[in-house]
Amino acid sequence: MPYKTVIVEKEGKIGRLTLNRPDKLNAINDTMLREIEEGLEELRKDGNIWLVIIKGAGKSFSAGQDLSGVDTAEVMPPDPHAKPYLSEIFEGAEKLGERLRHLYAFPRFTIAQVHGYCLGLGATIAMCCRALVCTEDAVFGDPSIRMGLAVPNPLWTWRVGLKKTKELLLTGRYINGKEAEQIGLAMAAVPAFKLDEFVREEAEAQLRFGGIGGYDMQSAWRVAHETNMDIAGLAAAWRFSSYLYGQSSIQRPGRSYIDRGGVDFTKIRREKGLKPALAARDEPTKKYFPAPAAPKAS
Fold it and tell me: Please, are residues 86 and 250 in contact by the beta-carbon 8 Å criterion?
C-alpha cells in the first residue's frame, strides 16, 4: 500500500521500515505514527518476514514529536491555552500509550538502526525494539522535559535503571551513542560507516540461529519474556506513565510549570513561530547541559 511518511521494503526474510520525513529530521506526526503501525502490520502479515529493521531516512533516526502543531493531535497533548477537558487529555495519553505498547509487543524480532538524533518519541520507538544499534555520534534524549512534559512510557527506567533515568529525564540532558552503549540503552555503538554492515550481520545472525529450537522458539521466548516483565510491573508502569504524561500537560493557574518560570512553548510558537519557541525552550538549560555537536549524515 502507498505511504506518505514511511517506506516499507522486503528483502528475503528481512523487512525494513524507514521513517521518511528527512526534511523534518523524521519528526513524528499523527500520520507517521499511524503509518508505522500500518507498515509493521503489513510486514507481520507476510509469513516470510522474520525480522524487521526500523531506521530513519536522511540525517537522523528521528528528532521526536513534530512540534509544529500541524497533524499532532495524537503525538502531543492538547494546547493548554485551549482549556481542554480532562477526559480529552487522559484519553489521548492512554491512546498514545496503547500504540506504543503495541509496537513494543510486535511479534517479530526488531532492530532499531539509529543514527543522528534519536529524541523524544523517536527514542521511545527505538527503545520499543528488541535490539538497538547506533552510531557513536548518535544523540539520545527527551527535550520535551524542558516543556514541562513527562515521558509517555516507562522504558527509560526499564532499559537503563532508575538512577540514570532520573539524571536524564529530570534534566533533559542528551547523551551520545557511546554513552548509550555504556549505560545499556544501546546494544552496540559503532562508527557511522560501519552501521549498515553491523546491523546486517546482526540480522543475519538472528535469522540463522534464532535461539535454540529454531525461530519458532523466539516467539515462545518473546511471550515468556513479556509475561515476566509484566509480572515485574511493566504493564502497570505503562499505565502509570500514560497517567503522568497526561497530568504533566495540565497547566493549572498559579501552580503550573509555566507559572513557576517554565517556557510557555505553545504561546511563543503561536505568536513568533516554531524556531523561536524551540530556542526559548532550550536556552535556560543550554549552559548546564549543552547538546553534543550535530551528528553527521551516515
Answer: yes
Query: Coil, helix or strand for 10?
Result: strand
**Cα Rg of the chain, angstroms:** 19
Cell numbers given for 14: 528481512
d(CA 203, CA 188): 14
Residue pLDDT, tens place only, 68-118 = 999 999 999 887 777 888 888 889 999 999 999 999 999 999 999 999 999
Give the DSSP H or E segment for 36: helix 30-45
Q: CA of 134: how far to CAs of 22, 128, 137, 204, in Å?
A: 18, 14, 8, 17
State the Cα–Cα distance between residues 139 and 7, nearest whole angstrom.
Answer: 23
Distance CA 117, CA 25 (A): 8
From CA 208, how far away is CA 201, in angstroms rounded?
10
Helix/strand/coil for 92? helix
How close are the terminal C-alpha atoms of the chain, in Å? 28
Domains and CATH numbers, the chain: 6-286 (3.90.226.10)
pLDDT digits (tens, 9 = 90+) for 130-141: 999 999 999 999
Q: How far is CA 47 from CA 33, 52, 109, 217, in A?
A: 24, 12, 13, 16
Q: Could you tell me which residues come within 8 angstroms of residue 120 by beta carbon, excluding any fewer than 6 positions away?
A: 62, 63, 64, 65, 142, 143, 144
* pLDDT tens readout for residues 276-297: 999 998 888 887 777 776 666 5
